[in-house]
Amino acid sequence: MTEMKKKILEKFKEVYGDKPGARAFFAPGRVNLIGEHTDYNGGHVFPCALTIGTYAVARKREDRKLRFFSMNFEHLGVIESSLDDLKPRREAGWTNYPKGVMWAFGERGYKIPCGLDILLNGNIPNGSGLSSSASVEIVTGYILSELFGLKVSNQDLALIGQFSENNFNGVNCGIMDQFAIAMGKKDHAIFLDTADLSYEYAPIRLKDAKIVISCSNKKRGLGNSKYNERRGECETALSEIQAGMGIRTLGDLTEEQFETVKMAIKDEDCRKRAKHAVYENQRTIKAVEALKKNNIELFGKLMNESHISLRDDYEVTGEELDTLVEEAWKVDGVIGSRMTGAGFGGCTVSIVKDEAVDTFIESVGKAYEAAIGYAADFYVVEIGSGPCEL
Ligand code: GLA
After folding, report:
1. Is 84 noted as a catalytic residue in this protein?
2. How far apart are the CA of 166 and the centre of ligand 1, in A?
3. DSSP helix/strand/coil, 345
């Protein structure tokens, strides 16, 4: 038994008492290598699951009560609810995520016959933008499927997770995070076409290099409303160029096609957002081709271009992420660096040569603290698999 499994089972016993039937599970976090803000524009993304994520223990109850406990928020104690009260509530805090998934299972016609005691322990840094909420959603879905023998496929777990986040938690996210987590495969990234959910696993063989996450530690205050605003701007742009073109999404356009129709988009900001969506999608396709040809330098260059587009056209980076990336670009041995995830805070992803990792952390760390006034955190991460029972 792994150390972690022992630790969470012991804590579960301490919190909920020692009765048989407790089972332990895990779902990863994710990082997106390239293809940002394309997933709600019918474009491609290229994320991978991580070996860090959310650990959970769950046990069936004899009544319809739900009890939640998080080792990350121990001070909140046990939070109670019931299968007959699956409504989002501000005071329910983080438990709105697992409750949302239970509600979404019901909407899909799955019966949850009895309540549960659940304990979570995540090792994804809080608020880092490595999708701790999608990880909680997927681990919850996996628990329900396994404990009640529902045999829900991992792809459906992703769709149910997204549905609950959109309709229960009010975040209008795309499918990328839940898909990357539910479908993760060790040492592979997922090249996903969000227009039809066709996907391909691409091995990430980084010879002599590592994936380094730099976490800005910026609090993401207005993140969700800005996110929904960008979606709206892309929808406006699409509707203005759609007439007569026969396209369904911005992901259907090549760069050349976009350049010929772009002036139909009246508002300049909307035009810039659409430009990013189109170019970023094409960049993601090119990046995966480069990787297949083992051209990691070109992959890195496309990551850098992705950041510039997110900074100048999509405008979702901000001083913190720009500082992390621009300082990273100065370090010898950095193959590519960009913001990852929604932006407005959160973190960056960099591919760094083995021998440069220590210098990278030291020099980016120092420059960031001097410019921003507080420290960033750095994590050398590995690509892991999807959800599992421990
Ligand atoms: C968040 C959303 C994803 C995706 C990214 C941006 O992580 O949850 O669906 O839109 O932002 O690429």
Report:
1. no
2. 12
3. coil
